[in-house]
Amino acid sequence: MYKKFLIIASKDNIAGINITTNLSQFKQNPVLASMNTDKPNFDFYLPEKSMLYNENLDMEKVNKYDFIIFASTHRSDKGEKSLSIHAPGNWRNADLGGKAGEVSKASALFQKFIFEKLLENTKEHELDKKYAVTLEVTHHGPTINKPCLFIEIGSGEEEWKDRRAGFVIAKTIKQAIEEFQPDKHREVAIGIGGPHYCPNFNRMQLTSNVALSHIIPSYVRPITENMIKEAIDKTEEEVDFAVIDWKAFKSEERKELLKLLDKNYISWKRTSEISK
User: The domain that contains 37 carries what CATH number?
Assistant: First the structure.
């Protein structure tokens, strides 16, 4: 179980500062924290420049923690209002930080837990009519060797400054840190295929026993053996199988994908086969 969490937000990131300001009210007194060593706790780290780039992070500091949560803005060309979660990493080029062809570590079980909490809190505080709660596929930097995730407010300045959205995410982070317990009965999977906001994987994450870590989107096709290995190797838990968004691929693409999975002895299922 994770005990020491680090919440990172760049000082110039509007949503990140909104979230961390709200989260500061939940920060335990340092004296009490030192007395309750068995209780999970968190610290803040506010780098001067964008946290997407490894060179802007003090990795010696980062590596002292068990789990890293990046609080950030989300940008959408369509301007859709969203509260989103995703693992960082690059399947191909490193256009927005990190390392090309490498992804960060991710915990499928923690991601499922915090995603469920985010939806629960969004509904409780009546933000579900304004914001869509969604997963995103794995994308952008940084690339770090600690389990981590991004939790974001999107997708314009009005939303980034929304204090209610900042509070809901802060409350979600606090609850996830304090309440998370690994559920050994979950099935752990990586996702392959589908669009950036991956609706089929959203459904699975919320309504099934499957916990997802990294998701490889269709738009990085062709899907390569290295991508699949990266997704599995960088998942904290043992991966039980890959889940394929079947209709996202043409027949020939599916054949090549299944060859790669079979070659590496990886079981697979279609998204439509995952029961509620």
Answer: 3.40.630.50
